[in-house]
Design goal:
The complex is a heterodimer.
Chain A lengths: L2 H18 L4 H13 L3 E10 L2 E12 L2 E8 L6 E4 L3 E6 L4 E6 L14 H4 L3 E11 L2 E10 L6 E7 L5 E7 L5 E13 L17 E4 L14 E3 L7 E9 L6 E8 L4 E8 L9 E5 L2 E8 L2 E7 L3 H9 L1 E3 L2
Chain B lengths: L2 H15 L8 H9 L1 H17 L10 H10 L22 H19 L14 E4 L7 H4 L2 E5 L6 E4 L5 H14 L11 H4 L6 E2 L1
Antiparallel strand pairs in B: 1-2, 2-3, 3-4
Classes of the chains: A mainly beta, B alpha+beta.
């Protein structure tokens, strides 16, 4: 290999790596944070706080050749539990005396990270490192993500200096008021997690099972019969799926829209008895939902975005058949 | 699974339903989790148990109507209202809360209809819907109905808020995909695990 060719090669390599380095240090930290979650096993206790309520939960997060397996158990109030692996998500709801099993999202192994069009995300949010702090006895970076318009929420992320794991986060509205908070009280990064830690502790009480994990409805590209016709700038349809669920036996369309950070899901479901459905707005922590009936279809938009945004999403959904 | 094993498992499920097995009997629970037929057996036994204990409503078809009426007609306040010290966020309109109650009722109806002769003679109509007395500008929308359950001789107060199966299912599916999209800010499904209810066991 001639020196000239080698020089050319090196120039190309450094040029391309320079392009990658265009991302800001804050964005780089967020990418490392996503990678850490796909590489490290850990166990800890965290607090989840919203709307003046608090819950303490234990999380067990195992990464091995089977991908991510995760179990979250509430340590306060009802012992709700969610266990997920590459196949399914099992929600055990003792207060509801029910167990709900849903399919895992495909692509769980993909490392989620800021999308390729990273500069595009910067059009809708600003990223900055606000400084350092300490969470669960570990020094952290504090990263600020602020929305540039009223259609999105902002985030503040506390990222472990050493492991790059997310140790604390706040979801904030445009005014900077926290809508919900999540932070570890205690976390240990471990090499191995015993199987027992991932097993449920269901009691002997009566539960009803809603198992939607086995049903699958093949979907072909371009087969979507519903779509949102309005969305904030920067949102694109990121994924779509169709499911048959046991309650309705009708396919439910699930359309996913993302601006690279936030995500809004739109569900469209045909109902046999639409009379019993109450539509309108509701919220669950930082998640807002808005439902409406169109003919005999229930259209629901859900997302970590302001109430107006889900409402506008839901109201814009039309059948494209 | 062969026939004998299945019978054995059915017997164990029956024992589990009757609380005769401790929850340490994990093989049974493991089988339950893995086996669809076992799950159905489990549900069936529970329905049978519920009907035997008179826990199924008398007029099954009426329950959703009763619930709606109960919500509409401002009954006596049996439960202390939940304090909404909304230093984090103001409650959004409570449409879904009422929807949840209706959903629970409807779901019970569907279950009960699967059993011939079910719901014949329950004397105890213990479930009462009360409304908490939170002062709001939109009383019809933002009050939180609470299901007061007095079956066990002691009042247990559950706030029925998060139990709409449809909305829960949407949430789980949303969260699943959320885990792979953008920055979610926390582990997926935390909101599902979160107790919306104040479980005041008094």
């Amino acid at each position: 290999m001639s020196h000239r060719f080698l020089f050319l090669l090196l120039t190309l390599v450094s040029a391309s790596s320079f392009a990658v380095d265009q991302i800001t240090p804050a964005q780089k930290l967020i990418r490392q944070m996503s990678e850490a979650n796909h590489k490290l096993s850990y166990e800890g206790v965290f607090i989840y706080r919203r709307q003046g309520q608090m819950d303490t939960m234990r999380i067990i997060h195992r990464v091995d050749e089977n991908g991510i397996q995760e179990r979250i158990v509430s340590l306060t109030g009802f012992a709700r539990e969610v266990i997920r692996d590459k196949n399914s998500v099992t929600c055990i709801l003792p207060d509801d005396e029910s167990v709900m099993v849903e399919k895992s999202a495909p692509g769980q192994f993909k490392i989620s990270q800021l999308p390729e069009q990273i500069n595009k995300v910067s059009e809708y949010y600003t990223f900055s490192i606000a400084g350092q702090d300490r969470v669960a006895n570990r020094p952290t970076w504090v990263v600020d993500i602020l929305p540039r318009d009223n259609y999105r929420y902002g985030y503040q992320l506390w990222i472990d200096l050493e492991s790059k794991l997310l140790l604390k986060s706040e979801l904030k509205n445009k005014e900077g008021t926290p809508l919900e908070q999540f932070f570890f009280a205690k976390i240990q990064i471990v090499d191995e997690i015993p199987d027992e830690w991932l097993k449920p502790e269901i009691s002997g009480m009566g539960y009803t099972w809603h198992d939607n994990s086995s049903e699958d409805f093949p979907i072909h590209k371009g087969d979507v019969s519903w779509k949102a016709t309005w969305m904030p700038d920067g949102f694109v349809m990121s994924d779509q799926e169709k499911q048959i669920v046991d309650e309705s036996q009708m396919p439910v369309e699930h359309l996913m829209y993302s601006d690279g950070l936030a995500m809004v899901s739109v569900f469209v479901e045909k109902l046999d008895k639409p009379a019993n459905i109450v539509t309108g707005a509701s919220s669950m922590g930082g998640v807002n939902t808005f439902s409406k009936m169109t003919d005999s279809y229930l259209i629901t938009a859900i997302g970590e975005v302001p109430q107006d945004t889900v409402k506008l999403f839901a109201n814009s959904v039309v059948s494209n058949k | 699974m062969n026939e004998q094993k299945r019978e054995q498992l059915s017997a164990q499920i029956s024992a589990l339903v009757d609380d005769e097995l401790t929850h340490e009997s994990s093989p049974v629970i493991d089988s339950l989790l893995q086996d669809n037929e076992a799950k159905q057996t489990w549900t069936r036994y529970h329905l049978i148990g519920a009907s035997l204990r008179g826990h199924l409503p008398e007029h099954i078809g009426d329950i959703s109507t009763n619930v709606s009426q109960a919500i509409a007609s401002e009954p006596t306040v049996l439960a202390p209202g939940k304090k909404k010290s909304s230093d984090l966020m103001k409650p959004v309109m409570g449409f879904a809360i009422a929807a949840s109650v209706a959903a629970v009722a409807i779901f019970n109806v569907q279950q009960a209809n699967q059993i011939p002769g079910a719901g014949q003679s329950p004397e105890t109509g213990q479930s009462v819907i009360a409304q908490s007395s939170i002062a709001t500008s939109q009383p019809s929308l933002a009050t939180s109905p609470q299901l007061v359950n007095q079956q066990k001789g002691q009042a247990q107060v559950y706030q029925v808020k998060n139990v709409d199966p449809r909305l829960n299912r949407y949430m789980v599916n949303h969260n699943e995909y959320r885990a792979n999209t953008g920055v979610s800010g926390m582990p997926p499904h935390v909101r599902m695990v979160a107790n919306e209810a104040d479980s005041n066991n008094k």
